[in-house]
Amino acid sequence: MTDLQLIGKQAKEAATQLALLDTKQKNQLLEHMATAVENNTEEILQANQMDLEQADSNGIKEVMKDRLKLTEDRIAAMADGIRHISQLKDPIGTIEHMWKNEDGLTIGQKRVPIGVIGIIYESRPNVTTDAASLCFKSGNTVILRGGKESFYSNQLLVSVLQEALNKNQFSPYAVQFIDDTSYETANEMMELTEYLDVLIPRGGAGLITHVKENAKVPVIETGTGNNHIYIDKDSQLDMATEIIANAKAQRPSVCNACETLLIHKEVAAFFLPAIEEELVELGIELRADEWASEYLPSARLAAEEDWSTEFLDYTLAVKVVDSIDEAIAHINHYNTKHSEAIVTDNYFSSQKFLNEIDAAAVYVNASTRFTDGFVFGFGAEIGISTQKLHARGPMGLEALTSTKYIIYGEGQTRK
Amino acid sequence: MTDLQLIGKQAKEAATQLALLDTKQKNQLLEHMATAVENNTEEILQANQMDLEQADSNGIKEVMKDRLKLTEDRIAAMADGIRHISQLKDPIGTIEHMWKNEDGLTIGQKRVPIGVIGIIYESRPNVTTDAASLCFKSGNTVILRGGKESFYSNQLLVSVLQEALNKNQFSPYAVQFIDDTSYETANEMMELTEYLDVLIPRGGAGLITHVKENAKVPVIETGTGNNHIYIDKDSQLDMATEIIANAKAQRPSVCNACETLLIHKEVAAFFLPAIEEELVELGIELRADEWASEYLPSARLAAEEDWSTEFLDYTLAVKVVDSIDEAIAHINHYNTKHSEAIVTDNYFSSQKFLNEIDAAAVYVNASTRFTDGFVFGFGAEIGISTQKLHARGPMGLEALTSTKYIIYGEGQTRK
What we know:
Chain A has 415 residues and is an alpha/beta fold.
């Protein structure tokens, strides 16, 4: 039985210690962690082999096995990832604003760590080192609960990071791993309000919904993206085709891929056959409403649930709309508030779309695939928030911080 | 039976409409609301009379009745409050940052409304107009669920605001009131995830804990303040006495009042008797640990629970500490992360305290009573957040906003 109370208490204590380190000290420890990952390549590969054997005996699909599989190169990339995060600007300690109020108090808003961050994830072992180093750099301790598929890899990676911390006189409890993948333990983690300051689920829609509905700890929702591209009546066929092909097919399994194409009725008859040609060549299967079907011989008829499905696959829903207003209404009704794009030459359409679409990222004449912390220039990301509180969109280091007001007085009292 | 689903749906629809208003339009509607409050003074007083009669028959304390009671002046002040909020700078539409990324995309982070805000409150009727106008100005629609003590006043006030909106061709559902003060309805509100973007409880610790533990909607915790003042060994008696007297006695019933005095052992024997004299004159009852009791003839012995009690009354706990480290450890253990102060002449003590205390506001040589949106210069506040996510400390208009990334492209696709 995993003692989550103990893990939580250790994390909280380590957080107090970690909050006092300066940037140089944190970076040195991250460097030690990166070196430790490299130095333990052999052991990590052995642990990963156990995961792969388990995957075989469970008949896991090849594509999933590839996500799971570590190689020397992939382990080197994990170490590089840690080093990259050590080089990012440390947000902690920044005074965002500082002003003198009417009482003569000097008031500053200072960036501080959140404290203890819980991460429940399903995906690849590199999430372990990425999440651990992002939390560490931003002054937070982390409790990781990974999926059972990569259990042995994750467990070994965390023990390598802990050993590096320990050897360098820092609390190994800054990065902890829950070595129990049962649902009971995950549910218990969601109620660890005494110790966890926030819980970030990373994975599929099912995981995220489950965490959101059951957690008593504050949650930052990430990731699910039922994204749309709307092709306006004033738009260029070439640009529209390139953007929809990129957003759908460049990497269909990710959350910023496009799932539904909306197109204005005035260009549908001319554009859709050309777009279909390109998409079919890329292996995309189309599901169209009745109107769009008239122009799309390869499409099968879309069902109601297709409008709300995040396919994450070579499938695209297509719908013809009467107006930009209908497009916006459709998007705001069905989307998951992730990434939305319009293709248009019209100034007023672009502004209307930017203003009225409710999503973390709204694009004019660009692919939705750009919603990404690296692309935005944050250097790295812990996930993409699709909620409105605290952080929205790609979450870099700053999204892992809070603030406190620091106030310098000279004996002031309130009248 | 109150139909919360319907109220939620109406609020969501009105939010879409409200998000499209410009600042001038919002300000004009706020002005209409203020005028309507003034024009309905007689009706509001009558409704308030029903609350006062109910209070009488329920044997409510005089001090509580005074909080409940409206007068012509107090109603005029409510209208002025609405006008004041209309004059504050509108945060909506501000582009916080805008930059060009490596792909040539111009990325901006734009401030947008959160959407629908729920407020559960126990306090005075003026919270109704304050909360409604703060939410309105920041582009959010609001669902108010007030306490039963001020039910008739709240209900009438909201109907006055709604009539003003309606008369001016705007959806009255921008400000809604739940005319049912049952616990069942409050609990149902806490689970209204489809429509409520955030829930802000305003009231006592019991209410806030209940909401935090039961809500499925994201919550911003506000208000409870078990605050401390630590008198360092290098400090001035006069300043220490003035600050502690102000923080404890100027208005003991508020969340930024001080509840525990910590004092360094080296000055305890000299300072405490003088401080006691001042505090006793102000009617303060002291509860001291054994050590402090030696210097405080009027004090009774503190019990363990006194260290974690928010007295909100003329009561102060007092403890002698060996060092600033002990003071910081005590505070971080018992505080509610609201407001904490040190009185010191020592530079290093001041920096240590500012760095190591975990609270929304940390003061050097000033009273904790300053933690307040008006005092900080925000013009108004919806509450004081004691959590770390989204907003921390006094919450002005900006704390009622979210952001979205807007991205201007020229046909870019991801490589």
